[in-house]
Design a protein that fits this description.
Length: 188
C-alpha cells in the first residue's frame, strides 16, 4: 500500500484510519460551493506534516467525477531525495448539502475522513482545507506557485481559526518537479 494517501488535498491514511468525518470546532465549510468548478488539478503549496506525506514534494491532487456520482481523487507526490513517486487513488462524497464544501474522503475500505474547505477563492484558484480537527491543514492552488500575499492571507486566516500555522511546511513545486508532472488529462 502506498504511504502517500491524501487531500481531495491533498488527506488520508491517518485520517482514514480514524474514520472521523468531523470539522474543527469553531470553523465552517464554505457555502455556495460548486463541485464542477473545484474539479481538476490542485497543487499543494503548504501543509502540516504527517506520516502519510512525510518527505513528499511536488504534491498534486486531481479530482474528477466518478460513475457513482462521487469524486475520484488521485494524489501524487515524490520524494525528491530518492526519486520515488507515490500515488494514491481515493474517493470522496459530500457530507450533507452539495452546496457546502464539506466532504468525506477514503483511500481504502469503509473508512472516511473529513475534507473541509474552510476558504475558497471566488474564482476557485486557491483553497484552505482542513481535516476533521486542527491537526490537518493544507493550502492548495490551481498553479504550482501562489502569490506570497495570498499565501500570507490564508495562513493568517488559518491562525484566526485556531490552527498552529508555525507548523506549516512549504511543499516544493518548482523546477525540480517538472520531470514528475503529468498532464492534467492523465490525472484520472
Amino acid at each position: 500500500m502506498s504511504r502517500y494517501l491524501l487531500c481531495l488535498p491533498p488527506l488520508a491514511l491517518t485520517l482514514s484510519l480514524g474514520g472521523c468525518t468531523g470539522i474543527p470546532e469553531g470553523t465552517q465549510a464554505v457555502n455556495n460551493f460548486e463541485l464542477q468548478r473545484y474539479l481538476g488539478r490542485w497543487y499543494e503549496i503548504s501543509r502540516f506534516n504527517h506520516s502519510f506525506e512525510e518527505g513528499l514534494d511536488c504534491v498534486t491532487a486531481d479530482y474528477s467525477v466518478r460513475d457513482d456520482g462521487g469524486i475520484k481523487v488521485i494524489n501524487r507526490g515524490v520524494n525528491l531525495a530518492d526519486g520515488e513517486p507515490d500515488v494514491a487513488e481515493g474517493k470522496a462524497y459530500f457530507i450533507g448539502d452539495e452546496n457546502v464544501g464539506r466532504l468525506k474522503v477514503s483511500f481504502f475500505g469503509p473508512f472516511y475522513a473529513g475534507y473541509n474547505i474552510l476558504a475558497l477563492d471566488d474564482d476557485y484558484q486557491w483553497s484552505l482545507v482542513s481535516g476533521p480537527d486542527r491537526d490537518y491543514l493544507w493550502i492548495l492552488s490551481r498553479t504550482s506557485e501562489l502569490p506570497v500575499d495570498i499565501e500570507q492571507q490564508l495562513t493568517s486566516r488559518a491562525a484566526e481559526l485556531g490552527f498552529n500555522t508555525n507548523s506549516l511546511l512549504d511543499v516544493e513545486q518548482g523546477e525540480s518537479c517538472s520531470q514528475w508532472r503529468r498532464p492534467e488529462s492523465q490525472g484520472s
